[in-house]
Specification:
The chain is an alpha+beta fold and 858 residues long. The chain is built from 27 helices and 31 strands. Bound molecules: arginine (ARG) and zinc ion. It comes from Henriciella mobilis.
Length: 858
């Protein structure tokens, strides 16, 4: 069964307000719902409901007879309803038995909720669709000693004690919202409190609720929240709109975090951080996710989505906003490179396989499976490409039109784009094709230089490969930032270009651009897709010498990094095809020089040490041999490390910055140190192992300690085993750090290692972070072992998936996506993947998991 975009019809009723009354008990929570309903168009009165025990139902105070309504296929239909009425329902749910972590569930003895996309129907009967918005009033009662803190959306109202050791609290949210933004948390927490005064002078109480004894680990999340609130005011003129903003951290959570109105619920991995236990990447992720969820308050909550096909309307835009936030707080080029690495690793892979789908799909089987890299990351790239296409001023103006005109509505991509058409005066209908077509466009650039005329002719063409159910693609407008480089660190002027820069919009299958330079000019070098202005693959006929020359002439840090990526990639492919041939010395020393040259920007220099990973190399080879790619990559990396040997020692001899601060500046220094630790491991010598071990023993921060552990793991010997043990003993009571301990081992071990880890006493099938720390770390970052031709890697993961699926279908479905590249594998691994997928299909899985398996096999 699939849901189709074209089948959208508005809901026939409006529900102006709703009162929810929760009586919390672990195994039998009572939910009484009272909603005022008003008919606005013809149609049936249907509510969603899943796994609910209905105790009572009445209209305007009169109980309904069983014959008055029908419950089937998770829907409750009442045949005859008045035009205006009050519906009351009383249901019982079992939060303790909720292992899917959707709806109301229990984590570490406390109640919490997750309603996006369709969890609210597991709490009460309701039209569980984002275009039905209502004013929520919530009353919660619970045992006071066990659940002293009772939270929901909006601002607190009455509270007090009840007989029998119970107490109650009321919450009111004045902003109408869809049910997916509802939240409830109850339990005993420690709170890190602070406050914020908005640009309008309004006072906001802020709280971050965490496990007892962990309050000080919430400080960074709080700092990030205040920074987010300020940034949205300054950058987009958006202020917060309630007197309270709370964040609750929970250990058992299916994804990163959730933007429930006024009550964000977070995976504790993205809240808790202390200088000794969190890496710089953790601090950075917390800042970015806290920002992301906060920014949803305007892009997602105040303006929500009409239906789930419009998911990218809130997600793509909000990812764009959080990327900009991080760029403004940290380094813009470094942020851009990291965002593109992620896009290429996850989204390009998705776009090139059987699970490819458009940013705004036309149909889906299971909505939970649409929270993808394509919707999020490519969705964000399209907003960025839009800013390049229409310019920052028109973009900013369009955003203000969007906020003004669509506030309080459930909107569509068309609504959103109409604002930018107004702001720019441009017809953006062709741009919207980007939302309808899957696949990564390939842009080919051919240059011709006419010495006599001082004219450079660029022939640009585009082609988007076929994707499932989309054979033919139309050209999309591709905004390519370009510059003409003089090879001396500057630009060359040309007619119609400014400071040697322009934006070329490739909006046809092929386009010729003439660039006229002043007479007698030397041939400039072309820099294109600067800052990765469009999410495409660029193909140019540049050989190694040409790319090295370009890298030296580049003025865009993104492209400098990207030139070296291309060079490394080509070299790794050559090493794979010529197993006897050593890595190219000249290339390796150019790579090492680039690192040295940029040492004053250590975060950037660190990125220059990262070779394209197997997942990315994989995409350019068919059939792909992950083990071969991995060993070719390691040969290049070893040579690279040897070329930097002196620098490694010099950099690591300097002390790590103290006292520890999670600042971008210190993080940059540690990133380069971490890179040097990684390269030490790549040397692979016994001396390297002992250096790593002594650095590990003395490391004063998690970034370096974990980098050492990661580097030691592939090196045989006593040092490795000792490090694994010491690390475990030191951190065994900190589950977030133990997740890392599992992940570094699964990320570099064999299938047997993954199996052993999945049988470790600390492995916990009911905790998504722990399951991912083994299964996703193995299947998504350790492709050589996962896709080993003997099929053992596939089997371990299939076993975990099958067990996980019984408890948590969303988790199992996500893990299954690691099989998405199976058709590109060399024949042995390919056959094994097929067998395993077919076995899973026959075994019978949840709807979510089946949706992925079926599409993968299709
Ligand atoms: N809206 C949340 C966020 O982007 C994620 C919710 C994920 N929901 C899901 N069913 N996968 O921050
Ligand atoms: Zn989001």
């Amino acid at each position: 069964v699939s849901v189709k975009l074209e089948d959208y019809t508005p809901y026939p009723f409006e529900i102006d307000s709703v009162s929810l009354d929760f009586s919390l008990e672990l195994e039998a929570t009572r939910v009484r719902t009272k909603m005022s309903v008003r008919r606005v168009r013809p149609g049936e009165f249907v509510l969603d409901g899943e796994g609910l025990t209905l105790n009572d139902i009445s209209i305007d105070g009169s109980p309904l007879q069983v014959s008055d309504y029908k419950i089937a296929d998770n829907k409750l239909t009442i045949a005859d309803v008045p035009d205006t009425f009050t519906l009351e329902t009383d249901v019982t749910i079992n939060p303790k038995a909720n292992t899917a972590l959707s709806g109301l569930y229990v984590s570490a003895g406390r109640f919490c909720s997750q309603c996006e996309a369709t969890g609210f129907r597991r709490i009460t009967y309701w039209p569980d669709r984002p275009d039905v918005m209502s004013r929520f009033h919530v009353r919660i009662d619970a045992d006071k000693a066990t659940y002293p803190i009772l939270l929901s959306n909006g601002t607190p109202g009455k509270a007090g004690d009840l007989p029998g050791g119970r107490h109650f609290a009321e919450w009111d949210d004045p902003h109408p919202k869809p049910s997916y933004l509802f939240a409830l948390c109850a339990g005993d927490y420690d709170v890190w409190r602070d406050s914020f005064t908005t640009m309008n002078g309004d006072h906001v109480d802020l709280g971050v609720y965490v496990d007892k004894g962990q309050a000080d680990r919430a400080e960074w999340a709080m700092e990030s929240l205040k920074a987010s609130m300020k940034w949205d005011e300054e950058r987009f003129g958006r202020a917060y709109d309630l007197g309270v903003f709370n964040i609750v951290a929970v250990r058992d959570f299916n994804f990163g975090a959730m933007e429930n109105k006024g009550l964000n619920i977070f995976n504790s991995a993205y809240v808790l951080a202390s200088p000794d236990s969190a890496t710089d990447a953790d601090f950075e992720a917390i800042e970015s996710i806290v920002g992301h969820e906060y920014f949803h308050n305007w892009t997602g909550n105040r303006i929500t989505c009409r239906d789930w096909f419009q998911l990218c309307l809130k997600e793509g835009l909000t990812v764009f906003r959080d990327q900009e936030f991080s760029s403004d707080l940290r380094s813009r080029p470094v942020q851009r490179i990291k965002d593109v690495m992620r896009l290429r690793a996850r989204q390009f892979a998705e776009d090139g396989g059987p699970l490819a789908h458009p940013v705004r799909p036309q149909a889906y089987g299971s909505i939970d499976n649409l929270y993808t890299a394509t919707v999020y990351e490519k969705g964000a790239e399209l907003i960025r490409a839009l800013t390049v296409l229409i310019g920052d001023d028109a973009f900013n103006k369009g955003m203000q039109i969007y906020f003004d005109e669509y506030d309080g509505t459930a909107s569509t991509i068309e609504d959103f784009y109409s604002c930018f058409e107004k702001a720019s005066g441009k017809d953006l209908s062709q741009f919207r094709l980007w939302y309808a077509q899957a696949g990564t466009p390939e842009v080919t650039v051919v240059e011709e230089w006419d010495e006599a005329k001082s004219e450079l002719t660029l022939t640009l063409s585009q082609k988007t490969p076929p994707t499932p159910k989309q054979d033919k693609k139309k050209p999309v407008p591709i905004p390519l930032r370009a510059a003409l480089l003089d090879g001396k660190g500057g630009h060359v002027e040309a007619e119609g270009w400014q400071d040697g820069e322009t934006v070329i919009v490739l909006d046809k299958a092929e386009k010729t651009v003439k660039v006229n330079l002043s007479k007698g000019s030397a041939r400039p070098l072309l820099s294109i897709n600067r800052e990765f202005s469009a999410p495409v693959r660029v193909r140019r006929d540049l050989d190694k010498a040409g790319l090295l020359k370009l890298a030296a002439a580049e003025t865009d840090p993104f492209n400098i990094w990207d030139c070296f990526q291309s060079l490394a990639k080509t070299e790794i492919f050559r090493l794979l095809d010529e197993p006897q041939s050593p890595p190219d010395d000249a290339l390796v020393s150019a790579m090492a020089d680039a690192v040295r040259l940029n040492e004053s920007d250590p975060a950037f220099a660190a990125l220059l040490t990262v070779l394209p990973d197997v997942g990315e190399l994989f995409q350019d080879r068919e059939p792909a041999d992950p083990a071969g790619l991995d060993s070719a990559r390691k040969r290049l990396r070893k040579a690279f490390a040897e070329a930097l040997a002196g620098d490694i020692t010099r950099i690591l001899e300097q002390p790590s910055p103290t006292p520890f601060k999670p600042s971008a500046e210190q993080a940059g220094t540690r990133a380069l140190r971490g890179a040097m630790i990684g390269l030490t491991g790549a040397l692979g010598t016994p001396e390297a192992a002992s250096q790593l071990k002594s650095h590990f023993d003395s490391a004063s921060n998690m970034t370096e300690s974990l980098a050492c552990l990661r580097s030691l793991i592939p090196l045989p010997g006593k040092a490795r085993d000792e490090a694994i043990e010491t690390f475990y003993a030191r951190w065994k009571d900190n589950p977030l750090v133990i997740d890392k301990w599992f992940a570094v081992q699964a990320g570099q071990g064999t299938a047997e290692d993954a199996r052993r880890l999945s049988e470790h006493p600390d492995f916990d099938m009911s905790n998504p972070n722990r399951v991912r720390s083994v299964a996703a770390a193995f299947s998504m970052t350790n492709l050589a072992a996962f896709h080993a031709p003997d099929g053992k890697g596939h089997e371990v993961i299939a076993d975990i998936i099958q067990r996980a699926d019984k408890l948590n279908p969303a988790l199992a479905a996500r893990l299954l996506t690691s099989f998405e590249q199976w058709k590109k594998l060399e024949p042995k691994a390919r056959a094994s993947a097929k067998t395993v997928l077919e076995r899973l299909q026959e075994a019978g899985l949840s709807k979510n998991a089946m949706d992925i398996v079926t599409r993968a096999l299709d």
